[in-house]
TrEMBL record:
InterPro entries: At5g01610-like, DUF538. This is Pentatricopeptide repeat-containing protein. SUPFAM superfamilies: At5g01610-like. Transmembrane segments: none annotated. Signal peptide: none annotated. It comes from Heracleum sosnowskyi.
């Protein structure tokens, strides 16, 4: 059963449909909160959304996927629906994500950067176990070149919007 109700969707600041747009929006959101942009490498996404007031994020994909972070040699499973609360440098109450440690799959519930910044990111389970890795292994080199229906580059447009600064005269 989905955790994302129609009530939550009605409160959403952003709701997007389609894999390419959701991938770009996910990477941009992660970058905005200071987390590595390759942290959630979901495929075949159908929907993603963000409730700015609470920091609630959801990502829906057609089916669960397993992704191996090659630089770490770690296998991570992403369910058909991933939800979380995001804030600067943190992902809390994460659902739908598991990592394989030895022979067991462990649920990941929290992800956070060290404060003060050390270039490390920590993954925590509900039982209190945690592992820390360099943030660089979760970075994607280049944002995807995705265009909207008007032919505008979405990643470039989003980045330009961030760089525009309004000054009073």
């Amino acid at each position: 059963m989905s955790q994302v109700t129609e009530e939550i969707k009605s409160k959403a600041s952003e709701v997007h449909y389609g894999n390419e747009l959701c991938e770009v929006k996910t990477q941009l959101l992660l970058s905005e909160v200071g987390l590595p942009n390759g942290l959630l490498p979901l495929k075949d996404m159908e929907e993603c959304g963000y409730v700015e007031a609470t920091g609630f994020v959801w990502l829906k994909q057609k089916k669960k996927i397993d992704h191996k972070f090659e630089k770490l040699g770690k296998l991570v499973s992403y369910g058909p629906e991933v939800t979380a609360f995001v804030e600067k440098g943190k992902i809390k109450k994460l659902t739908g994500v598991k990592t394989k440690e030895m022979l067991m799959w462990l649920t990941v519930s929290d992800i956070y950067l060290d404060d003060p910044p050390t270039g490390k990111i920590t993954f925590k389970t509900p039982t209190g176990l945690s592992r820390t890795f360099p943030t660089s292994v979760f970075e994607i080199e280049k944002a995807k070149d995705v265009k909207n229906a008007k032919g505008e580059n979405l990643a470039a447009a989003a980045n330009c919007a961030k760089e525009v600064e309004v000054k009073e005269v």
